[in-house]
Design goal:
The protein is α/β, with parallel strands linked by helices. The chain has helices spanning 12-19, 23-30, 37-45, 63-76, 100-119, 181-190, 210-214, 241-251; strands at 52-57, 80-83, 86-89, 92-97, 130-132, 136-139, 147-152, 169-173, 196-202, 227-231. The chain has eight helices and ten strands. The protein is globular, with a radius of gyration of 18 Å. The chain has a domain at 6-39 and 64-201: 3-Layer(aba) Sandwich (Rossmann fold), CATH 3.40.50. α4 (63-76) packs across α5 (100-119).
Length: 252
C-alpha cells in the first residue's frame, strides 16, 4: 500500500497558511523555540520572498540554531509555486560553507535537534512526511524536487548551485567571509526569481570580499540590497557573564 502524500493530510493546508509567511511563528509554535532578540530580527528579516540577509556574528549567538529552523521552515511551508502557466512542486534549499563538514557540524546538527523538538510538540505529525539523512533532507515522495542539501564552496572549485533554478529557493552560506567572490557571482546568477532568498553569516574576520561589502557599500543602509544584521555575544542569552569576563581578560 502506497504511503500517503503530505498533500493528502487535511492538516497540511492550514499548516502552510499559518506559517508560510511567518518563520518566527514557525520557530516558536512548531519548533518550540524561545528566540533571542537577535534571532527574532533574523527570522523577521528572512520572511520576504526575495530577502537577502547578511549576519555578522560573534560566538555563541544562536545564529546556527536560527539557520536550522529557517531551513526547515522553507522546506515545510513552501510546497507549491504557480507561475508562467506551470505548477512547480516543492522548494529547494542549498546550505554551503567553505568546507562541507562545517555544514554537517553546524546546521545539520541543529535540524536533527529541531526534528526531536517538533516530535514532542503540537505539530509532531509533520515529521511523518520528511526524512533527514546525513547529507540531505527531503519530503517523502518528492525527494528529487523538494529538499535541503549541502554544497561545498571551496576556493578554486565549482559550486553546486550553478544552473539551479526554482521559484522557492533558499541559499544559506555559513562562514561566508571565507567564500570567494567567484562563488557569490554564481549565486547571484542563480537567484533570479521572486521567491529566491539568500542568507549568509560569518564572523567579521576580513575587511574585503562580498560578505564584508554586504555590511558596507552593498547594505540597504547604503542603497544596496542586503539587510545587514549584527549578532553580539555580549547580548546573547547563550553565553554566561563569566565567559564574557574570561574573553575580556584574555584579550586585555
Amino acid at each position: 500500500m502506497a504511503k500517503a502524500s503530505i498533500f493528502q493530510d487535511p492538516r497540511y493546508l492550514e499548516f502552510v497558511e499559518r506559517f508560510h509567511a511567518d518563520p518566527l511563528r514557525f520557530a516558536v509554535s512548531v519548533c518550540g523555540m524561545s528566540p533571542s532578540f537577535d534571532q527574532e530580527d533574523l527570522l523577521f528579516a528572512i520572511s520576504p520572498p526575495n530577502a537577502k540577509v547578511s549576519v555578522v556574528s560573534g560566538t555563541s549567538t544562536g545564529k546556527t540554531a536560527a539557520f536550522g529552523r529557517i531551513a526547515l521552515w522553507h522546506l515545510l511551508c513552501h510546497p507549491v509555486a504557480v507561475y508562467e502557466g506551470k505548477v512547480e512542486i516543492g522548494s529547494n534549499t542549498y546550505i554551503g560553507a567553505p568546507r562541507i563538514n562545517q555544514v554537517a557540524d553546524g546546521v545539520w546538527k541543529e535540524m536533527n535537534d529541531v526534528y526531536l523538538a517538533i516530535a514532542n510538540g503540537p505539530y509532531g505529525w509533520i515529521n511523518d512526511y520528511y526524512e533527514i539523512t546525513k547529507t540531505r533532507v527531503a519530503v517523502k515522495g518528492f525527494e528529487d524536487q523538494w529538499f535541503i542539501t549541502q554544497v561545498a564552496m571551496q576556493q578554486g572549485q565549482s559550486i553546486g548551485v550553478a544552473g539551479k533554478h526554482r521559484y522557492w529557493q533558499l541559499i544559506i552560506i555559513d562562514e561566508a567571509a571565507g567564500v570567494s567572490d567567484e562563488h557569490f557571482d554564481v549565486i547571484d546568477g542563480t537567484q533570479t526569481q521572486p521567491g529566491n532568498r539568500t542568507l549568509m553569516a560569518s564572523q567579521g574576520v576580513r575587511n574585503a570580499g562580498r560578505f564584508y561589502e554586504s555590511h558596507h557599500n552593498l547594505s540597504r543602509d547604503n542603497g544596496g540590497s542586503w539587510i545587514s544584521l549584527r549578532f553580539s555575544s555580549e547580548r546573547s542569552p547563550f553565553v554566561t557573564m563569566q565567559w564574557l569576563k574570561d574573553r575580556d581578560d584574555e584579550t586585555g
